[in-house]
């Protein structure tokens, strides 16, 4: 059988395979040496992907100073692998006009040292403040390179994907408009792509749906994608109780209920699905509040998806089942978080994170994706993690058939 990845950022994956991969750096010296070597091979700004501070001997994110030492005045931006945190050097910050007096943007923040000076660590929407200034200085992957990346996906057994693509503001630095790129390449794609569009207003969403409908090829408009919070790794998942290793924060809830309701209605008018990212238990409850409203307004619950649905209360599982909404899960997260997630959320919450068996037993429709480039897109990584659950409660493990079924194509394929 062929597999379907229900949550993947295909242009982000293409950017990763053509760019600077930082995941397996062992310490800051190794990391910065990779950045310096890569900087010699490109013009303009330097962009790195999949930075993993948990894998570094120092156990911390680099700062602007660490990067300034090796790249000097070349603007540099390194994305943490979750995509919700990035680190900029001084040249990138000054290009973006970020300085000690710059206020935090809505839905994000600049880490600051005791004197108030930004350290270079950018959280959530603060990333866009810098990436949009750098974008004109970055060469994105060529069309040929993007098509090669799609070929990789086909070679991994993926016959089709649900691709998350931004219209307007780019999600990955260097690609100006992901949707334009995808629609231009649509006739040449080796696999089918259902598209969930990240769009800031109903007009742009409608234009995106129209652009997809007009493109001759293997793309189809699936709906609208939104974020309700960030990630566990970046301490930005929205939790009911504080992070175990950061008692000062319960994360960042990003869902604007009124705006989300308007966008969801626009998506449904276009015949589309509504997919909202929720990692923390507080974010998941906020998304279920939104979905409950939408169902009350007459929405088809099978068109409402919680993306990730990572940390859930028992009441949230019960409510998802009652509403009839879908959980879109990423079992590969278990393979990469098993060593450190307990530090972030503690033992009690470890017992209710990624509760795949409970979701299925409650009768909830559960589908699987990689979230690549967050994780690698080979579906067998997620299937194995859903079965074995390394570092997690094994009683929530799935059988091989159940795990493979997460990556089954939707009915239309
Ligand atoms: Zn994602």
Named at the architecture level, the CATH assignment of the largest domain is Alpha-Beta Barrel
Q: What is the CA–CA distance across the termini? A: 12 Å
CATH fold type of the largest domain? TIM Barrel
Q: How much helicity do the residues have?
A: 25-40%
Q: What's the CATH H-level homologous superfamily of the largest domain?
A: Metal-dependent hydrolases
Task: Indicate the overall shape.
Answer: globular
Q: Could you say how many structural domains there are in total?
A: 2
What kind of sheet is the major sheet? 8 strands, parallel
Query: Helical region count?
Result: 16
**What's the CATH class of the largest domain, please?**
Alpha Beta
Task: Give a structural overview.
The chain has helices at residues 10-17, 28-39, 64-71, 90-95, 126-134, 143-155, 178-185, 202-214, 257-269, 281-296, 314-323, 332-337, 341-350, 356-361, 379-388, 400-406; strands at 3-8, 20-21, 46-51, 76-80, 85-88, 108-112, 118-124, 158-166, 192-198, 219-227, 273-278, 304-308, 326-329, 366-368. The protein has 413 residues and is α/β, with parallel strands linked by helices. It folds into 2 domains: 3-13 and 140-406, Metal-dependent hydrolases (TIM Barrel, Alpha-Beta Barrel); 19-137, Diaminopimelate Epimerase, Chain A, domain 1, CATH 3.10.310.70. Strands 1-8-9-10-11-12-13-14 form an 8-stranded parallel β-sheet. The protein has a 6-stranded mixed β-sheet with strand order 2-3-4-5-7-6, sandwiched between helices. Helix 8 links the parallel strand 9 and strand 10. The protein starts with a strand and ends in a 7-residue tail after the last helix. 54% of the residues are buried. The mean pLDDT is 95. Residues 7, 9, 164, 371 line the site of zinc ion.
């Amino acid at each position: 059988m062929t597999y379907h990845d229900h949550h993947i950022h295909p242009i982000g994956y293409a950017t990763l395979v053509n760019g600077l991969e930082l995941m397996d750096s062992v310490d800051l010296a190794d990391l910065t040496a990779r950045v310096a070597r890569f900087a010699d091979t490109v013009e303009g700004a330097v962009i790195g992907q999949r930075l993993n501070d948990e894998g570094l001997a120092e156990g911390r994110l680099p700062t602007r100073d660490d990067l300034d030492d090796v790249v000097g005045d070349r603007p540099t931006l390194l994305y943490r692998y979750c995509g919700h945190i990035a680190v900029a050097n001084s040249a990138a910050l000054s290009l973006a006009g970020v300085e000690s007096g710059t206020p935090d943007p809505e839905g994000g923040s600049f880490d600051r040292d005791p004197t108030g000076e930004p350290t270079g660590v950018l959280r959530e929407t603060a990333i866009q403040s810098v990436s949009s200034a750098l974008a004109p200085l970055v060469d994105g992957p060529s069309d040929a390179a993007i098509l090669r990346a799609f070929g990789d996906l086909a070679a991994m057994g993926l016959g089709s994907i649900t691709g998350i693509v931004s219209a307007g503001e780019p999600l990955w630095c260097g690609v100006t408009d992901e949707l334009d790129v995808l629609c231009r390449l649509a006739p040449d794609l080796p696999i089918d792509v259902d598209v969930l569009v990240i769009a800031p207003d109903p007009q742009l969403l409608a234009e995106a749906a129209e652009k997809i409908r007009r493109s001759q090829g293997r793309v189809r408009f699936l709906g609208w994608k939104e974020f309700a919070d960030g990630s566990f790794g970046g301490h930005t998942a929205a939790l009911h109780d504080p992070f175990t290793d950061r008692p000062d924060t319960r994360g960042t809830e990003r869902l604007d209920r009124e705006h989300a309701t308007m966008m969801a209605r626009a998506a449904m008018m276009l015949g589309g699905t509504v997919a909202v990212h929720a990692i923390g238990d507080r974010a998941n409850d906020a998304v279920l509040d939104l979905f409950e409203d939408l169902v009350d307004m007459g929405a088809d619950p099978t068109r409402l998806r919680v993306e990730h649905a990572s940390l859930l209360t028992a009441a949230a599982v019960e409510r998802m089942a009652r509403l009839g909404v879908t959980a879109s899960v990423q079992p590969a997260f278990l393979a990469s978080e098993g060593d450190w997630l307990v530090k972030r959320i503690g033992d009690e919450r470890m017992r209710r994170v990624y509760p795949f068996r409970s979701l299925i037993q409650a009768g909830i429709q559960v589908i699987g994706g990689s979230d690549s480039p967050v994780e690698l897109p080979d579906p067998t990584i997620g299937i194995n993690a859903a079965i074995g659950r390394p570092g997690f409660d094994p009683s929530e493990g799935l059988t091989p058939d159940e795990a493979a079924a997460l990556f089954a194509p939707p009915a239309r394929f």
